[in-house]
Design goal:
Elements (H helix, E strand, L loop, with lengths): L6 E6 L7 H12 L3 E5 L16 E3 L8 H14 L5 E4 L4 H17 L5 E7 L4 H9 L6 E4 L2 H10 L7 E3 L19 E6 L11 H11 L4 E6 L5 H9 L3 H4 L2 E5 L3 H8 L4 E4 L8 H8 L3 E5 L5 H4 L7 E3 L4 H13 L1 H18 L2 H16 L12 H13 L6 E4 L3 H12 L4 E5 L9 E2 L2 E4 L11 E4 L5 H12 L8 E3 L5
Parallel strand pairs: 1-2, 1-4, 2-3, 4-5, 5-6, 6-7, 8-9, 8-11, 9-10, 11-12, 12-13, 14-15, 14-18, 15-17, 18-19
Antiparallel strand pairs: 16-17
Helix pairs in contact: 2-3, 6-12, 10-13
């Protein structure tokens, strides 16, 4: 008897922006023909190889925070795959989970014969994704994480669901091995990732460069990626000694093929994040025979790297130790080559297409064999947070600004407009919003916040709100006039 065709809809929250989730989705699609991709926050048409309409679909940035619109797009996608069963993988973020929840409620009401199930997945070791999963747990037939630590945390949070939990290892495509370093050439270092500070901590890169200069270690560093901290990072690098900054290159955002080519001209991959799930860029670099040097992170990184065997680990924020590891690799070419080979062998062995396909098929079959979830009426996860903020802001007078133009920030702006509050500006570091507006409210760079006469700033972020508050206060620290009041999830 032939096995049933199972379709998968993998929701990617940040459009075509290169990220671990985007890479995960593309790799999934390479080996599973029935994998479909739903891109949120994607304004331009998808490339032809993604077969928009058939295999992939997208929602505009200013529709992607609207749970109702995402649910309709998801429902239409599912219906077009009828009568085959569908596994929905929301991946991250409240909106995709809320939309999946709403779809299952409709499916239950209509008594549809097309089986639809949702697998809750966590790809990062922060608290918020676990809270989101707990909120929508009744709609989830299975739960998974992409690292041993994350699965362990899931078992602690959901002890009654242990039979439904699994470790979802990644698939990493074959990469041509990068050539050996030429004798007497500077050691070549590569950072590839989103240029942000909250998780990726890109401000650490110039500090490491300064330490390398102090050790008299010849190096060249390439920085691949884009993000809200690019301007600040360039500024910090410009303050390094001339001989050091001349060895640092910005490659910009690279598509997958360009990143593969970049791997071929480097020997060491740098990871300076404070938190990760399973860093795909690092795994791809290791597959290409780059030696990782990383700051210790319990999830993913410290599970993969064996110090002095297939890479090097250093404590968080120990820039001196980080630079000394690189200097040692530069002085010991044989040791560097041995670790590069071990790194590649690990990824080839543990993250193969065969292992991935067997795992996802097994878990999909098991998930479909469970009864359809009974979803009960539940508010959007963000509703409580929005109410908390707007309750304390409903009586505010004067000029308001929202800090954050992403999913949550746009929901907050909509709510404030509904309450007849006047929002004069939305601050966001994302370069894609430069010169844009939402509901005729202009976006502006956070660095420009002191140029506006503001009475209040409301932080439109469900994560990192305290860090954002500290950043806002730093902008106004040297201003003579009275700073605006700041509101966040925990109150004023």
């Amino acid at each position: 008897m032939p096995s049933r065709r199972i379709n998968y809809i993998f929701i990617i929250p940040d459009g075509l922006r290169i990220s671990g989730l985007y890479t995960w989705g593309l790799n999934f699609r390479k080996i599973t023909a029935s994998c479909k991709l739903l891109f949120l926050n994607q304004d331009s048409p998808l490339p032809s190889d993604l077969a928009e309409g058939k295999d992939s679909r997208r929602l505009h940035s200013f529709d992607s925070h609207d749970v109702g619109k995402v649910a309709i797009a998801l429902e239409n996608f599912v219906k077009d795959l009828s009568p085959n069963p569908v596994i929905i993988l929301p991946s991250v973020g409240n909106t995709s989970y809320a939309a999946s929840y709403k779809l299952l409620q409709r499916w239950e009401y209509r008594q549809n014969v097309q089986p639809v199930r949702v697998i809750g997945s966590i790809f990062g070791d922060q608290d918020n994704p676990f809270d989101v999963l707990e909120h929508y747990e009744s709609s989830l037939s299975s739960l998974c994480g992409n690292s041993v630590r994350i699965v362990s945390r899931l078992k602690e949070r959901f002890p009654h669901r242990t039979k439904d939990l699994f470790l979802w290892n990644a698939f990493v495509p074959a990469m041509p091995p990068a050539p050996s370093r030429k004798p007497d050439a500077p050691i070549r270092l590569l950072f590839a990732g989103r240029l942000d500070e909250s998780a990726k901590k890109v401000s650490r890169l110039p500090k490491i460069c300064r330490q390398l200069a102090n050790l008299n270690t010849p190096f060249e560093m390439s920085i691949a990626g884009e993000g809200p901290e690019e301007e600040n990072l360039r500024q910090s690098i410009s303050q390094l000694p001339a001989t050091t900054r001349s060895s640092i290159y910005f490659l910009g955002a690279l598509d997958p093929e360009s990143l593969r080519k970049a791997f071929q001209t480097h020997q060491v991959f740098l990871l300076v994040s404070s938190t990760e799930g399973l860093p795909m860029a690092m795994l791809e670099a290791m597959a290409a025979r780059l030696c990782p040097v990383a700051m210790e992170i319990p999830s993913g990184v410290s599970e993969i790297i064996s110090h002095n065997r297939n890479g090097m680990l250093v404590p968080q924020e120990d820039y001196s130790a980080f630079a000394k590891c690189i200097a040692r690799l530069s002085r010991e070419p044989n040791n560097l080559e041995a670790m590069r080979n071990e790194a590649r062998e690990l990824v080839v062995r543990e993250y193969s297409a065969k292992k991935f396909k067997c795992l996802i098929r097994k878990e999909a079959e098991r998930t479909l064999d469970t009864s359809s979830p009974k979803c009960r009426s539940k508010n959007d996860y963000h509703e409580k947070q929005l109410r908390q903020i707007t309750d304390c802001c409903s009586s505010l007078k004067g000029t308001l600004a929202v800090w954050g133009g992403g999913m949550f920030g746009r929901k907050l702006t909509d709510r404030l407009i509904k309450l007849r509050q006047t929002v004069s500006v939305i601050f966001d570091k994302n370069p894609q919003f430069k010169g844009a507006s939402y509901r005729q409210i202009p976006y502006a760079s956070p660095a420009e916040c002191t140029l506006f006469a503001l009475d209040s700033i409301i932080i439109g972020s469900a994560d990192f709100s305290n860090e954002i508050k500290t950043e806002i206060e730093s902008y106004f620290a040297n201003i003579d006039s009275k700073p605006p009041s700041i509101f966040l999830l925990d109150g004023k």
